[in-house]
Design a protein that fits this description.
It is built from 8 helices and 8 strands, in the order αββαβααβαβαβαβαβ. The protein is α/β, with parallel strands linked by helices and about 280 residues long. It has a single domain, classed as Rossmann fold (3-Layer(aba) Sandwich), CATH 3.40.50. The protein has an 8-stranded mixed β-sheet with strand order 2-1-3-4-6-5-8-7, with helices on both faces. Helix 8 links the parallel strand 7 and strand 8. Helix 1 crosses helix 6, helix 3 packs across helix 4 and helix 4 crosses helix 5. The longest helix has 15 residues. It starts with about 25 loop residues before the first helix and ends in a 26-residue tail after the last strand.
């Protein structure tokens, strides 16, 4: 008997053609995600991809897994609720820096704190690309543009610091152009129990053409991953924003909810909701 064929990255792609701008880093992120699913030998029906709003949040439509395209900033509560209700699913939440760290910032903090076993992948391009180039929470304070002449002057949000301080159990950064490194990191993140956070530097070549140079400035972090949050915090204080690799692997037990045994038909519960 012939052995079943091993899954390929293409097995996880939908028939929809991505509509990102030519050169967008999110193309490589999509490829890394599907390669990670193939490496994990997961069936498409065992995976749920959840997103919010933004260029990167189109990801669910480009996979043939279960998917949910939510509203702005609400991808994490959707993903956490889904994982609690269906713990057998591999739940991956995807989004961008605007969706995840601005309107979704409070959800980010508490998703890290709750430590439910999901993976959060944020494609960070330090700009609102879908809405034509406004500064995002991670934009450099001196980035000069037509919409923010002279820059915002506001200190940028540091996702890795916030994730670590809030209790994420796995914290890493990758570069979208490094497909192998990003794939390997996503595999590690999904396999690691608890809330895993992966920031992916994903250039927006339309509104931030200067980011084409990222491929020459990203570099492996000079330190090995640690399971000591205090040591990870000290290391991250010297981060230049372009260190890539796994920063922290924690050992906290994931938050789990015991599911009640399902009995009866829906009609039996109607009386409970009568006013």
């Amino acid at each position: 008997m012939n052995a079943p064929a091993l899954p390929k990255a293409s097995d996880y792609k939908s028939e929809l053609k991505p509509v990102w701008c030519p050169g967008c880093g999110d193309y490589h992120v999509l490829l890394s995600l599907t390669k990670a699913f193939a490496a994990l030998k997961l069936r498409p029906e065992e995976i749920a991809v959840v997103s919010g709003i933004g260029c990167s949040s189109r990801i669910p439509a480009y996979t043939n897994c279960y998917g949910f395209h939510g509203v702005h900033g609400r991808a994490l509560p959707l993903g956490t609720g889904l994982k609690v209700a269906r713990p057998e699913l591999t739940v991956l939440v995807t989004g961008g820096d605007g969706d995840g760290f601005s309107i979704g910032g409070n959800h980010f903090l508490h998703a890290c704190r709750r430590n439910i076993d999901i993976t959060y992948v944020v494609m960070d391009n330090r700009v609102y690309g879908m809405t034509k180039g406004q500064p995002s929470p991670t934009t450099e304070p001196d980035w000069d543009s037509a919409l923010s002449p002279g820059g915002t002057g506001v200190r940028p949000f540091h996702p890795l610091v916030i994730a670590l301080a809030s209790g994420a159990n796995f914290v890493a950064r990758t570069f979208s152009g490094d497909i192998k490194g990003t794939t390997d990191t996503i595999v590690q993140a999904i396999n690691h129990p608890g809330f895993s956070f992966v920031e992916i530097l994903s250039p927006c070549v339309t509104f931030r053409p200067d980011q084409r140079g990222w491929k020459s400035v990203v570099h492996p972090a000079p330190v090995e991953p640690t399971d000591d949050a205090a040591r990870a915090a000290r290391r991250i204080m010297t981060d230049d924003g372009f260190n890539v690799g796994v920063l922290y692997r924690g050992s906290r037990e994931p938050y789990m909810v015991e599911r009640a045994k399902e009995t009866g038909e829906p009609a039996q519960f109607d009386g409970m909701f009568e006013i």
